[in-house]
Specification:
The protein has 228 residues and is an alpha+beta fold. It folds into two domains: 1-60; 75-216, L,D-transpeptidase catalytic domain-like, CATH 2.40.440. The chain contains three helices and ten strands; from the N terminus they run H-H-E-E-E-E-E-E-E-E-E-H-E.
Amino acid sequence: MVEKIAYRMSATVLLVAALAIVAMLVMGLTRADAGSSAAPKQEVAMASADPVVQDTSAIEPVVANPVDIADKLPLSDKFVVKRILQIDEPFVHGYYKWDDEGVPEGELVVTVDLKAESISVFRAGYEIGAAVITFGDSQKPTPTGVFPITQKSKDHVSNIYGSPMPYMLRLTNDGVAIHASDVKWGWGTRGCIGVPLEFARRLFEQAKLGDRVIVTNGKMISIGDAIL
């Protein structure tokens, strides 16, 4: 009887042990399957977490090539009148004055006032030249505005009227320019600004392409004013 009980207990222990081993094998296989099925998800997650590199060449703002911005910008409001020439003589047609002695180098700006029939040349804010002018008549008035000097020609002859235009400084494409002329009362031009010959020569020598000419009709300036 005792032998039978011992035999049964041994068989039971063996059976339980066998079942435990089978269970462990089944659980191991299940985990292995679960692990193998999770691997692709992990790869996808890692791939989506990687930084995305885009070709930004098409969306970056295009920066234009640097252009001579100085020519595009208006005159700085720091460019103020520091000196007005002292003129004691009668300011009449044919008269001019030029005095650049001791004036520092700097930006050259020419102002023309049609109402006052006068032209002024400023360098670094100092007036170095002034003269009485002739200008456009009713058929071809002189335009107002800011004009860069686009051409210089010492012995220019008008290809429209055939008349000489010594020391020509072109302002517009349709022929308006500053040039030497007989400046007399009552005389007019076809839109150009006529100045005495010697004044034209001095201005021609100092002016550069791109220097600005400001033409107004009644705009007067004095010391301390900004040339805008």
